[in-house]
Amino acid sequence: METQHTFSLIYARKPGILIRVALVLERRGYTIESMNTSPYDSNPDFWEMMLTTEGDPAKLEQVTRQLAKLIDVFAVQVLREVYC
Amino acid sequence: MESAKNGAQVLIEILEQLGVEYIFGYSGGAALPLFDALYHSSIKLILTRHEQGATHMADGYARVTGKPGVVLVTSGPGATNTITGMMTAQMDSVPMIVLTGQTITSLLGLDAFQEADIFGMTMSVVKHNYLIKNTADISRITREAFHIATSGRPGPVLIDLPKDVTSAPFNGSLTDQIDLPAFQLPARPNPESIQSLADLINQSHKPILLVGHGALLSGAAPEVRALAELIQAPVTNTLLGKGGFPETHPLSLGMLGMYGTVYANKALLECDLILSIGCRWDDRINGNPKKFCPQAKKLHIDIDPAEIGKIVVPDAYAIGDAKQVLQELLPLVHPLDTEKWLERVQELKRLYPLQYRPFNGNIPEGSASLRAQHVIDVLYQLTNGNAIITTDVGQHQMWAAQYFKTDQPDTWLSSGGAGTMGFGFPAAIGAQLARPDQQVIAIVGDGGFQMTLCELSTAALHKLPLKILVIDNKYLGMVRQWQEFFLDGRYSGTDLEGNPDFCMLAQAYGVKAFRITKEEELEQTLAEALAYQSGPCLIHAEVVKEDNVFPMIPAGQSIHEMITESPTVPLQMPEGST
Ligand SMILES: Cc1ncc(C[n+]2csc(CCOP(=O)(O)OP(=O)(O)O)c2C)c(N)n1
Ligand SMILES: [Mg+2]
C-alpha cells in the first residue's frame, strides 16, 4: 500500500540539490507530488524544502536516511504520513 | 593585480599541498590547461591507455594507502569512460577524486563538441560532484572534494572543469577553506548504544564476529583481534573484509556468503549472536535477509547511519568509526565461556574442510587438467601469503579469496560491490606504484583481463615488477557455471573461443611471459616468475575449462540450500539477484 508522506528538508542551496533529492526518491519508488522551496527562517545558511510524496511506507526510514546522507542536506523530518 | 597563475595551475598546486603523488590520466582538448599545469609539477602523471584503467589504478592506489587516488581526463567520452571506475569505488567505499575537462562555460548546454553532462550523469555513482563555473572557486572546491572523499564513509568525488575556468587567471584566495554547512561528520559514538552492544555480547554463548570492509577502512584490525581473543569468538569475513582479521588465525572461519567456506556458513546457522563490524549485510552475505539466521541476535557497527536497518534490522547497533567503537566496547565486555562453541566450530572445520582434489569431471581431449585452485594454492605457498593480491571478477576471484589467505590489512584488493570485470590488472598497477617494494600479484580471468589489458603498456613503461596471473579457462567461467547448474548447460554467450595467445600478447608489449599447462610445471614456473623483478611479467595458466566454484549458495537462497558438488539434475534458476 502506498502512503503519502510530507518531508521537510533543511539544506544548503548548492548546485544539483534538487536532482539529488529526486534521484533518492525515484530510485526507491517515491513519486513527488509537490515540491516547494523557500529560505529557511532560522538560519540564513540554509533553505527549506517541503516535499509531498507517495510511496511504500516500509521504505520510509531508508528514504529518510538516504536523504539525510546527501552532502548538502542538513536535516530531514517526516512531518506527516497519510494512508491513501 | 592579475594573478600570475591560471585556474589549472592553482588546482595542481593545491593537489601538491594535499600530498598527491600520482595522477592517473588521459589527455584531450578540454583538459589541455590541466595537463599543461602538470608539466612542471612534482606530481607524477601516469598516462594510461584507457580512462577506465586510470580509475582502477587510482582505486588500487587508494585501497592500499587509504589516500584518495586522483584521475584526470578530458570531456565527453573521456569523462564517460570513468563512470564504471567511479561506480566501482562508490560501491566499495574507496576515496577517489576524478577531474574531468569540460567545454567552455558559454557553450554548456549547447551540445558543443565533446560536451557531456558528466555532472548530471554521475550523481548516482559518486559520493558528491561539482561543476566549477568560476575560477575563484577552484581552491575551495578542491579542498571540499578531498574532505568529502576521505571523511566518514569514503567515496569518489568528481569535479568537472570547463576549459575557460582552468585557463582564466585565478583571482580568488589560495587559502579558501571548505564551506559545507550541511555536511556533518559522524559524531562520537553514543555510549549507550555501545553499552547495548556489550550487554548482548556478554550474554552470548555462541558469538561470531563478522568483519567487513569498514573494519579495514577505519584501521580497526588490531581492535577486531583484541575483541575476538578477549571474548574467544570465531571470526568470519566478507570478500572485502579479508585482512581485517588474520585468516590463518585459529579463530578465523575465512570468508562467508555465496562462495564462502562451509564451516563459516554452517557456524552462522548455529551461532546465537553476529556482530557485524563494518559489513553491510549485502545479498552475497545474507542470501535472503528474511531467512538469515533467525536464531541469532544481530549487532551492527557502521559509520553510515543509512546502513542501519537497510537490509537487516539489528537488535543493537552503534553508529561510528569501527575502530573507535571497538575501543570503547572492549572495556565493557568480559571473556565468555565459549569453549563448547569453539569445539563445535573446530568440528565443522574438520567435517567440511575447504579443499580441492584432482579434477574428476569431463576433460575433453587435448584440454588442460590443471585446476585453478591448485595454481592459486601453490602461489600462496611460494609467497608465504606475503603479497598484495588484486583480483578480477569471476571464478578465479572466488578461488583466490578461498585459497589465498589474507593476514594483513590492505593487501587484498577486489571489486566486491560492483563486481567490475577489468578491475584487477589496473588496480595492481596503482597498488605497485604505491608500494614499490612489495610483491603485487593480479589474479585475473581470461575474460576480465581482456577488458583492460591495454594497460600492459603502462606497466611495461614504468617497469613495474608486478605479476599478472591469467587463469585461462577459455570461458566466462562464473556465468558458465550458472548455465551448467540452472540452464541445463546451454552455454549462451560464455565461450571465449578466439582468446589470444596470452604469452605472445605480453611479449608484444615487451612484457616477460611464462606458460603453465601441467601440474609438473606449476611450482618451478611460478617460482621463476616470482623471482623475475626487471619489470612486469605475465603467467598464463591454462586450467580445466569446466570447473566450478564450491561451495555455492544460489542467489536469494538461505544457507541451508548450499551446494557443495556439481548437481546431477538441473536446478531451478534462483530468484535472488545474480
Ligand atoms: C564488466 C562486466 N561485465 C560482465 C560481468 C558479468 N560477469 C561476472 S563473472 C563473469 C565471467 C568472467 O570471466 P573470466 O574473466 O574469464 O573469469 P572466470 O569466471 O572464468 O574465472 C562475467 C561475464 C561483470 N561482472 N562485469
Ligand atoms: Mg575465464
Strand order of the largest sheet of chain B: 2-1-3-4-6-5
State mean pLDDT of chain B (0 to 100 scale).
96
Biggest β-sheet description of chain B: 6 strands, parallel
For the terminal residues of chain B, how far apart are their CA atoms?
A: 61 Å
User: Which shape of chain B, going by the Cα principal axes?
Assistant: globular
How many domain units of chain B?
3
Kindly estimate the percentage of residues of chain B that lie in beta strands according to DSSP.
15-25%
**Which term fits the overall shape of chain A?**
globular
Total helical segments of chain B: 23
Cofactor (chain B): thiamine diphosphate; Mg(2+)
Organism (chain B): Xanthocytophaga flava
GO molecular function (chain B): acetolactate synthase activity; flavin adenine dinucleotide binding; magnesium ion binding; thiamine pyrophosphate binding
Keywords (chain B): Amino-acid biosynthesis, Branched-chain amino acid biosynthesis, FAD, Flavoprotein, Magnesium, Metal-binding, Thiamine pyrophosphate, Transferase
Task: Give structural notes.
- Chain B: Its EC number is 2.2.1.6.
- Chain B: InterPro entries: Acetolactate_synth_lsu, AHAS_TPP, DHS-like_NAD/FAD-binding_dom, THDP-binding, Thiamin_PyroP_enz_cen_dom, Thiamin_PyroP_enz_TPP-bd_dom, TPP-bd_CS, TPP_enz.
- The complex is a heterodimer of chains A (84) and B (578).
- With 84 residues, chain A is α+β, with helices and mostly antiparallel strands.
- Chain A has a single domain (3-83), classed as 2-Layer Sandwich (Alpha-Beta Plaits).
- Helices cover 25% and strands 45% of the residues of chain A.
- Chain A contains two helices and four strands.
- Chain A has helices spanning 17-27, 60-69, and strands at residues 3-11, 31-39, 47-55, 73-83.
- A four-stranded antiparallel β-sheet of chain A has the order 2-3-1-4, covered by helices on one side.
- In chain A, strand 2 and strand 3 form a beta hairpin.
- Chain B is of the alpha/beta class and 578 residues long.
- Chain B has three domains: 7-167, Rossmann fold (3-Layer(aba) Sandwich), CATH 3.40.50; 191-351, Rossmann fold (3-Layer(aba) Sandwich), CATH 3.40.50.1220; 372-547, Rossmann fold (3-Layer(aba) Sandwich).
- Chain B is 36% helix and 15% strand.
- Chain B is built from 23 helices and 18 strands.
- The N and C termini of chain B lie far apart (61 Å).
- The model of chain B has no long low-confidence stretch (mean pLDDT 96).
